[in-house]
Amino acid sequence: MTAADTFPRHSARTQGFSLGAPRNFTVAPDGQRVLFLRSSSGTDRSNALWMLDTGAGAEHRVADPAQLDDTGTTSAAELARRERLRERASGITAYAVDDSARRVAFTLSGELFVAEPESGLLRRLPARYPAADPRPDGTGTRVAYTSQGGLRVIGFDGSGDRALVEPEHERVQWGCAEFIAAEEMSRSRGYWWAPDGTTILAARVDESGVAQWNLADPTDPARPPRTMPYPAAGEANAAVTLELLRVDDAKFGQRTPVRWDSDAHPYLVAAHWSEHGRPLLAVQSRDQRSQLVLAVDPDTGKTTELHRETDPHWIEIKTGWPAWTPGGGLARISAIDGAYRLLVDGDDWTGPALQVRAILDIGPTDVLVSASAEDPTQVHVYRVTEAGARRVSEQDGVHSATRGGPVTVLSSSGVERLHGTVRVFREEEPIAEITSLAETSTITPRVELLRLGARELCSALLLPHGHRPEHGRLPVLLDPYGGPQAQRVLRRQQGYLTPQWFAEQGFAVLVTDGRGTGGRGPDWDRAVAGDLAGPPLQDQVDALHACAAERTDLDLDRVGIRGWSFGGYLAALAVLRRPDVFHAAVAGAPVCDWRLYDTHYTERYLGDPNRDPETYTANSLLRMAPELRRELLLVHGTVDDNVVFAHSLRLSEALTSAGRPHTLLPLPGVTHMPTSESKSENLLLLQLDFLRRALGLPTASSEAAAPVE
């Protein structure tokens, strides 16, 4: 950090102080190697591939984009993948390994590379350009990858590149995840190798029936708009089918369709293929109230139903299941009597005390899961057996883990320090710690975690350093996300830097997770069924009033709110529906009309707009436009392909038609989240200036200095 850097500039340059931190861990089954990604410094956006030798405890770089003639060119398919994952880094952003983790494949600028971390081999393969999503087979003999809508296979030595299957027309893709799978189901892949490397289970995505939307850059009117298929609520989805494709030379390209009732259960939620059993599928009905686990016969494509789950509202998708245990048991996560539970062959292994979030790994005798107990702000790693669950992570905070054989990589973060630790254990003995090169902020969050009101809403209060009640009352800034399954209030420092910066500008900042935000069980999640406006907004109001009842230095006559995406919707909703409480709002990329948002997310909570139009009308910001009496700043990227720019434009049009003053700030060329350093920095400063003006505060442009602790 230079002497001239302000916090907004420093945060933008380091991408929220995330650059330089290790990520994307893979542990070899023998425990001898840990692969991971990390950039070379806290301001370097380009990730390299690294390996930790767990025996020697030494790290070495396997592949460095700077030495591979990285042009920075990114294909449309790769850009779409990164956008769905909210990936802001460059260089090597993903990789895949064979079963032994001795051979690795990745792409860089659309070129396909393979490596052997132990031997030092690193080569570019003569694959079709642009290559995406390469994955070695279990033996490391071949690498499959997608390119131009087709699925191809090439030898690890670079021999025999050929198409396994090609698209029949331009709106068909093989081996890819369709938009809603990647955006809403956490399924970013579309093909799976057989354990013996003879067959690939591949998705065929046909977007012929999906409406085509145009994303234009208004700053370059000569450039044709980018056309994209977008499945809006109530409209057609992509047709997703599966086929078994033979890869062995004698039967190369032989195709066997996988058959299930896709009319009743059209959504392919997940797939799993391991040496412990037949391929597994999780498929879901359009209304998401029914989900099946199916086993696939790899010879005939016939499916057998293993489990059927129903819910009067929706089935919540949890990562890591369905999967086989080494003994052939079916592992899954289900909502039962108020808790998300781990079940193996129908037996409950976790009981009512844990809210299981994900299956992290399945070992010979246990299952590794992440879960929350009585405190939803903490996420811990548990080793679960039929006899019960034992917590692996010890310190308060948020933890995750990756395991291979006897070695576990435990990633931990807490409120005491900005950057977490990545510790490596053999059995239960620590053997190494993976280095983080991330920079440290000059701002240290002064965060107080609270449980507010009758619903004990998890909240975080941040005040200026040095502030005491006798110094006077502070204007209040609410800074929520507030949407389903997205917690902001967690026991880790990383999420509170920007709120603390706003606090240093003279605000009391309150962050609250209301109903639906996760961590507290199925009943809490489903409290927003049919109503994304009422409960989320009421919880923000209740938390504010409960906090103010305890703190006399919160000024309820000057209350602002800011948010992005669902948080942007909630911020705009706040000044439209509750002007008695909120006096100004910054709404970034808000979902203003739910009919313009995607099928899987929107229909889960609001149903089908063709059958329930009143529900959509009741949750729309457009109908509330004439009620605006407060200051509102709308901020939106012009080429956002998730919450399209039309949302803010339609709300602005409705406000203008109603004669309601407001401010619209378009971000030319920006997608759902700003990534450039200058835009990220100045966007914070512009929000601050707007809030100060709207709430009648001094508008000094200089940033208040935050003490270093």
Automatic annotation (TrEMBL):
Stretches assigned to the Dipeptidylpeptidase IV N-terminal domain: 111-395
GO BP of this protein: proteolysis
Disordered: region residues: 1-20
InterPro entries documented for this protein: AB_hydrolase_fold (IPR029058), Peptidase_S9_cat (IPR001375), Peptidase_S9B_N (IPR002469), Serine_Prot_S9B/DPPIV (IPR050278)
Domain Peptidase S9 prolyl oligopeptidase catalytic intervals: 498-696
Gene3D superfamilies referenced in this protein's UniProt entry, alphabetically: alpha/beta hydrolase, Dipeptidylpeptidase IV, N-terminal domain
GO molecular-function terms, A-Z: dipeptidyl-peptidase activity; serine-type peptidase activity
Name used for this protein in its record: Dipeptidyl-peptidase-4
Annotated source species: Actinopolyspora righensis
Lineage of source species: Bacteria, Bacillati, Actinomycetota, Actinomycetes, Actinopolysporales
